[in-house]
């Protein structure tokens, strides 16, 4: 039997863990091992976590590399899949390269904006295939390794988690929901909707200032800073509308929420751009131009249950039949890497 190795975060609820489990499911003919790169992070002090995350050195980063090198000692693999190699030293990546036939790197994040890593820049050429979800970074990838080894895919949802059956309520709340990191632009969106009278359930890190200022507003419900797994799915599934807000720290055009929200059976509200309009038609998502436009549409939509139901079903059907699950996306990656015949 052929052997595969997955290197990435294994913490429950993370998209990295979802990808690991998906690979094991769609490539059952391969015996899989996994190395958790999050163990060293969890065991490190707060200071060294920050140093490691920001500058990619220190005891935490060294521990990640030591763990990888120890676990591959004397091993051979047909496929090694590295999820976000930002902490791996060049010496470690070279050892991995020498240990496998096919070497794949995948990241759902930016590599040339946030998450920059000198280690990755020095080792990218050692991979057979580099997979990104960021179309705006293709030129940088091509300059680094050439276009022949770069693959662009969409973000994806997890069929084992993001689904309607387990969590859909009998009757949805007449509200909007957002779970994610607070950014100034996202805060403006939330406040614009609240000012328009839209009830909002909110979750994620960094919302303390907003909560201090607007915490007494009965229309605002805070779900907590950690809303993961089934809690995340329930929060989305209970709402009439999920806010698929994009980051403004870089030119993001779609995100995991873009697909997870309709997969959970809820209408996604998203900016109109070249990628979101390739995924959805206007009768499958709520497109908006600015937050005042969004607020006006949401107020009207929450009072139009029949229209809301049609949007909800059409968006769910588009995502679940359109090839946007991890099963479909990762199958296409495996096919490009030469493992399609094993599926």
Automatic annotation (TrEMBL):
Domain Spore protein YkvP/CgeB glycosyl transferase-like as annotated: residue spans: 186-331
Stored InterPro entries: YkvP/CgeB_Glyco_trans-like
Pfam families: Glyco_trans_1_2 (PF13524)
Protein name: Spore protein YkvP/CgeB glycosyl transferase-like domain-containing protein
Lineage of the species this protein comes from: Bacteria, Pseudomonadati, Planctomycetota, Planctomycetia, Pirellulales
């Amino acid at each position: 039997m052929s052997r595969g190795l997955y290197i990435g975060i294994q913490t429950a609820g993370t998209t990295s863990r979802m990808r690991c489990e998906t690979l094991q499911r769609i490539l059952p003919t391969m015996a899989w091992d996994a190395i958790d790169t999050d163990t060293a992070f969890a065991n490190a002090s707060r200071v060294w976590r920050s140093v490691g995350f920001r500058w990619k050195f220190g005891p935490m980063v060294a521990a990640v590399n030591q763990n990888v090198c120890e676990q591959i000692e004397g091993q051979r693999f047909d496929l090694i899949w590295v999820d976000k190699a930002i902490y791996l030293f060049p010496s470690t990546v070279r050892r991995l390269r020498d240990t496998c036939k096919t070497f794949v790197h995948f990241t759902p994040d930016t590599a040339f904006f946030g998450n920059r890593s000198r280690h990755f820049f020095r080792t990218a050429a050692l991979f057979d295939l580099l997979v990104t979800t960021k179309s705006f970074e293709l030129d940088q990838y091509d300059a680094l390794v050439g276009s022949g080894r770069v693959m662009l895919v969409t973000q994806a949802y997890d069929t084992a988690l993001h689904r309607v059956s387990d969590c859909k309520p009998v009757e949805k709340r007449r509200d909007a929901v957002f779970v994610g990191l607070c950014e100034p632009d996202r805060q403006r969106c939330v406040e614009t909707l609240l000012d328009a009278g839209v009830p909002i359930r909110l979750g994620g890190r960094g919302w303390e200032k907003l909560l201090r200022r607007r915490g007494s507003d009965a229309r605002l419900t805070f779900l907590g800073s950690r809303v993961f797994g089934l809690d995340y799915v329930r929060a989305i599934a209970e709402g009439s509308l999920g806010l698929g807000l994009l980051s403004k720290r870089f030119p993001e055009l779609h995100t995991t929420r873009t697909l997870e929200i309709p997969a959970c059976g809820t209408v996604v509200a998203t900016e109109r751009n070249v990628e979101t309009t390739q995924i959805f038609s206007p009768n499958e998502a709520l497109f908006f131009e600015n937050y005042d436009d969004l607020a006006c549409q949401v107020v009207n939509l929450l009072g139009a249950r029949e229209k809301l139901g049609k949007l909800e079903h059409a968006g769910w059907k588009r995502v679940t039949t359109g090839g946007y699950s991890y099963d479909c996306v990762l199958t296409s990656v495996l096919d490009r890497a030469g493992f399609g015949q094993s599926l």
